[in-house]
Each structure stands twice: as C-alpha cells, then as structure tokens.
Specification:
Helix content is 22%, strand content 27%. The termini are far apart. It has three domains: 48 residues, no CATH class; 175 residues, Rossmann fold, CATH 3.40.50; 136 residues, no CATH class. The longest helix is centred in the middle third of the chain and has 14 residues. The chain is an alpha/beta fold. It has a six-stranded mixed β-sheet with strand order 6-5-4-7-9-8, sandwiched between helices. A hairpin with a 3-residue loop joins strand 12 and strand 13. It is globular and about 65 Å long. This is CP-type G domain-containing protein. It comes from Aureibacillus halotolerans. GO terms for molecular function: GTP binding.
C-alpha cells in the first residue's frame, strides 16, 4: 500500500521502515516484495494472535493519547509493580478525559509471595489519588505467567460497559504481553472476550483487536520514560539489573556513617543515627556494605570490578552518580527507578543520601510492602 509515494502498512497505516526493529512500522526488507505489505507487528498479530511492543517519542504519544479523551472508552493503564513511579505516565487523567481509568499492576510475580494482594491494590489506588488521578479499580497480573489475567478481564468487562478499551503504558511494563495473555486466555473460547480473528486497525500507531458486539480493544505504542535505569545500562547489564523471578528481600542494619552499594549503579548512605534497610532488587545484583568515609574511594577504584554492573566494558559510557538527600522519621520507601527500592525503618529520625545517575528517577513514597 502506498500513500503519497510512501510505503505504509496495510494493517495499521503506519509508514513502513526497515531499520529499527522496535520502532513502529518495522518490516524486514524481504517483506517489501509482498503484494500486501504489512509491518511485522501486524503480521504477527494477524497470523499468531501476538502483539509485539513498540515505542514512540512523547510528541507522537501525546498525539495518540489526546484522541482518547474525545471518545467514550475505558482506559486501562498498565504499570510495572517493580517500578511503579518510573512506569507512570504523567497527564493520564487529561488523556482519559471523562473516561474511567482501570489501573493494572503488572509483574506481581516479582513481589514476595507473602504480600497481601488486596493491600497492594489499595496502595496502587492511593498512589494514583496522590497524583490527582481517580481510578475506578485496580488489579494485579503477571503477563509472564498469566496470573490474575482472568480477574483483570472481568474488571475490564465490568467497567467498559460495551465501550472500546484503550490499553496504555510506557515501555517495559509488559503492556503488549498482557494483551497477548488476554488473547491466549480467551481467544479460543466458545464465547471469546477477545476473538482469534484479531484484525489490525487503521489508525496510525494503534492496533485494533475486535471484541464482542462491535467493541474493540486498542493497543497503543509504549511511551519511553528516559529516567528509567534501563536507558543508562547496556543490554548485557540489564539482564542482571532486571529481576526474572520473585525478589528476595535483603535486610541490613546500617549504623551511622555506613554505605551500601547496589552494584556500581547506585548507593545509599546513612548519614546519622541508624536504620534497618530492606533492599528489594534483583537477586542477581551484588550489594556491598562499607564505611561512608571509604565509599568514594571504593567506587573510584572498584566500579566495573567488585562493584558491577556496570561491567568494565560499559563503565566509560555509564553516567556519573548524583546525590539526593532525604530526612526520614518513619518507615519509608526510597525508589531508584528501574533498579528497585529500599525500605528504610529508622530507629530515630535519620538522614540518608542516595547516589544514582542523574537521569534516573529517585523518589520517596509510602511503603509498598
């Protein structure tokens, strides 16, 4: 299909390109010879009922998101439970307009099995409310294992009330994998919620999946949040940074003037008093405790070696660490976006300093667990 001498996908209308696999419109060069030209994403959707993720810039995302408020719909906002703050899309209420928002927390399988899921769902709604976003409900899922998908689909049906459904989220939250789980779970059912004949839509950047009774589900491209750790580490280091299974909390009793390193990616200083520190990070990530007075020298000498990732090969491209201070008097989470979080339980009021790449988000929040 051509539009003004430009090759475009016959499925979703996006311009075809052959260079960037994770960008919209990618098709292998061999596909250009086909009579009906479709991008790889549409090809996999129509042949395998599989939605593959795509990422776009903020400007393009805003153009798509702003159209949602003009239509009666349910907005399903998918966030990463392991990186809740880092995977949040600001302005979501504006994009939704008067439409209801259902909040889906993905990657629940990474949290300790001992969690109270109802408390986590309530915590999610509280975080959204603190950011000025009203959600009708929340659900926990694992797009990796399929856990919670049936319950999430029930909520979607309940709150959609026959309207179209738009699924939004930033990159790496597992949004498209969640949709694939919906297709896998319901696609072959006699009374399918999502049919197996998943035809791509024609709106630029959107993939349309027909539901029952003239209702559609739209998968939107993922927004890139630049402050996530994923954007400052190499692909090889990312395998260590991002957990693949349930995170085992690691507990330390830090005295005044002690430091704990999280590989060579970040560190936490307890400046005064003492605190119990519980680290929720990848089980593969090496943690190292030392005296605060030795911390700077240790980092300069051993980053890329004892303190890794980053590995020695990627050390030169890894950004410098910037400092951020917090005064904490009660149990609090300190989040390093994309790396995990540290729960601080102070004996008395304590001052802590976090050193992390400047581009990475560092936040203080009400404890998740």
């Amino acid at each position: 299909m051509q539009r003004d001498d430009m090759l475009v996908c016959a499925g979703c209308g996006v311009p075809i390109q052959t260079e960037h696999e994770n960008a919209p419109g990618f098709a292998p060069a061999s596909a250009l010879e086909r009579e009906q030209l479709v991008c790889r994403r549409c090809f996999r959707l129509s042949h395998y009922n599989e939605v593959t993720p795509t990422a776009i810039g903020e400007k393009e995302f805003l153009e798509i998101a702003n159209t949602i408020s003009q239509k009666p719909a349910l907005v399903v906002k998918v966030v990463d439970l392991f990186d809740f703050q880092g995977s949040w899309i600001s302005g979501i209420q504006r994009f939704a307009g008067n439409n209801d928002i259902l909040l889906i927390g993905n990657k629940v399988d990474l949290l300790p099995k001992s969690i109270n899921e109802e408390k986590v769902r309530k915590w999610m709604r509280g975080q959204a409310r603190d950011w000025g976003v009203k959600v009708v409900d929340s659900a926990l899922v694992s797009s990796q294992t399929g856990r919670g998908v049936e319950a999430a689909a029930t909520y979607m049906s309940k709150y959609a009330k026959g309207r179209d459904v738009y699924v939004v989220g930033c990159t790496n939250v597992g949004k498209s994998s969640f949709i694939n789980q919906l297709i896998k779970t319901y696609g072959a059912a006699e009374e399918a919620v999502i049919t197996t004949s998943a035809h791509p839509g024609t709106t630029l950047g959107l993939i349309e999946i027909p539901l029952e009774q003239n209702q559609s589900l739209y998968d939107t491209p993922g927004l890139i949040n630049r402050h996530q750790m994923a954007h400052v580490v190499s692909a090889e280091d990312y395998k260590v940074v991002f957990p693949k299974k349930e995170v085992k909390p690691r507990v330390y009793q830090l005295q005044s003037a002690q430091t704990i390193f999280f590989g060579g990616l970040a560190r936490l200083d307890v400046v005064d008093n003492q605190a119990d520190v519980v680290c929720f990070m990848s089980n593969e990530l090496h943690l190292h405790r030392t005296k605060l007075e030795k911390a700077d020298e240790l980092y300069q000498t051993h980053v890329g070696g004892l303190l890794q990732p980053p590995t020695e090969e990627t050390r030169e491209s890894f950004p410098d660490l910037k400092e951020k201070s917090f005064s904490i008097s009660e149990k609090t989470d300190i989040v390093i976006s994309g790396l995990g979080w540290i729960t601080i339980r102070p004996k008395n009021k304590v001052t802590v300093r976090v050193h992390a790449p400047e581009a990475s988000g560092v936040f203080k929040r009400v404890p998740l667990i």
